[in-house]
Amino acid sequence: MEKIKHFFWLCSGVHIEILRKCESESSKYAGIGATVFFTGVFAAIAASYALFTVFDNGWIAITLGIVWGLMIFNLDRYIVSSMRKEGNTKRDIIIALPRIMLAVIISLVIAKPLELKIFEKEIRGELVIMEQQKLAAQEAVTKLRFEPDLRKLNEEIAQLKSEIVSKTDSRDQLDRLAREEADGTGGSKQRNAGPIYKLKKADADRAEQELTQLVEKYDHWIQEKLTALSETDSLQRTELTMLDRAKLDGPASRMEALSRLSGESSAIAWANWFILLLFIAIETAPVFVKLISPQGPYDHLLKVEEHGFETQRIENLARTNAEVKSRAQDLPQTESGFVNDRLNVILNKS
């Protein structure tokens, strides 16, 4: 148990020799270190899953995930260990704000891959719908590109056939009038093959001849346009079969699917928020613990230790300055004054 506590102390970034002098603070910093450690573990797991969806290779994903987890662990450890209690609440909050913002950003990065894993089954179903919609959109664009040519060919073929039908109706009408004149059921109502019948028969024969010529002429054009229509339709079908049917399974597609699911289902949206808030709470917990905790024995001992180093630094600097001033007495007056001025400037800055 002592080894575990010592490990969590290392994770919290405390000065262990100073912490051993104040046992009342040991549990607090062990808890902070445990939070930092498990945040790094969560980060490694989340990164491994996210990278597995990218590389589709377990060893690469785990290796890079561990590296990412160690980086997050080191960053969290620095955030916690760099905070100092000044005894001034306003000043402490101002100092902690950048660290809290950084902790929130880290929690967002950690939470998203785990959300994708938690809702993996729902996301997989939504990805199928997205694939179908993408394919339908690609088909619509492809058909839209060929539609003008197909419509134009169909209209031209329909127009040619319409002219043939119109000419056929005209021929049939003239032929009917000639027959009615011949059998007395129409026209002059006289049953004979007189001059009126001959005129109507001539009109009918002429219409028949014109229809024959028109059919011969238009049949060639219609066949050409039917061939072009068939080729265009075949080209369209070929391009439709060659459309990209790649499976949507990358991180961006999964996040898009999760976003769509959140918009469609309030339950999933609330679950997303709760997961996100949970990780924000976990990630910012060490910072808030140090922020709301009063100054304890460890903080006072650490301040004394740091003050001792600062005092020693000032003493060493003063001693060095005194030696330099002593040596400067042997220099010419102008150089001696310049050296003293520079030393005064350095002392004022210190």
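the 2nd protein, sequnce then structure:
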Amino acid sequence: MIVKKLLISNGFYPREYFCSTADYIASVQKESGSIPWYPGGLIDPWDHIESAMGLTTAGLYQEAKMAFSWLKDSQEPDGAFWPAYADCLPLDKSRKEAHHPPYIATGMWHYYLITGDYDFLLEMWPSIEAGIDFACNLQSQEGDIYWALLPEGDKWDDALVTGCCSILKSLECAILIARTLGEYKSDWIIARERLKKALNFKPHRFDRYWESKSRYSMDWFYPVLSGAYTKNQAKKHLDKKWDRFVEPKIGCKCVSDEPWITVAESCELILALLATDHYSMAARLFSWLHWQRDERGAYWTGYQTELGIYWPEEKPTWTSAAVLLAADALTQSTSASNLFTRDSLSESDASLELSANAAK
């Protein structure tokens, strides 16, 4: 079913409407558990995890477990992944990107929050630990995390704001997983604090040698949904560039200087808006997106507003997953609905501190 506008609210999740979206993701998944971008497309580990979270959100737990098991089977001995695969075969061995392996922690914490499957969390722990350690080993003395490790063992001497924000959220999830499993990872806690300080106070550490990525909307809202900023900082940060990136009644641009609206970026901006308590704006933005959905429930990558065409002509699994995650966050449908809208680690630490003070 295609609708031009979909209004949802807290407590109202249109499950029947989104069943077909989740089924589309599952239909693209291979027997190995890998989830390509689309039928015949490549597998990108980060996007694969995003798609797995979409499956979990929709209650397709077995398919989600298969996806996480594929990660465990495909992970390199150093905890990393290659940037692209054809099912189980690496397509590109030019680098190992820092933000891919730690994202397992985000996906698995999301899975655990919804399913409570402690045994599977424990089974995935070695992969989670290896993925986080890979990223931490790429942290510079300044706190930022180098973008990638090259095959010769050299570090790619630059850092991405968006990539580091993804790692920041993954560290939060990994520390919470460690606590759940009775582990204590002081080095992860330190790495997270150093990374947060770099994102807040050391902008000179990012985009040092390549062209600035500030034209990308992800660089704008990822620090908000990752928990890098305080709520007051985050609100001011979103307001500052709103008109630069948002096309009213259509969605969020991928880059500020192109007339191209993308569904995934729009959904991630929705999460950032919810993190700053802009609920009505988040719901409104979500309502604009569904004319970009096809009869099967899949969503187009985006829309070129000047040409009036969907572009590119692809319906990525991870785009559909982003829609499901945004819908869940808006409706509070699952127990993982606040994953990207709260800094649960800081809230947990604050709760522990209050309990300790009350006991004195």
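The first helix runs from residue 15 to 28. The mean pLDDT is 94.
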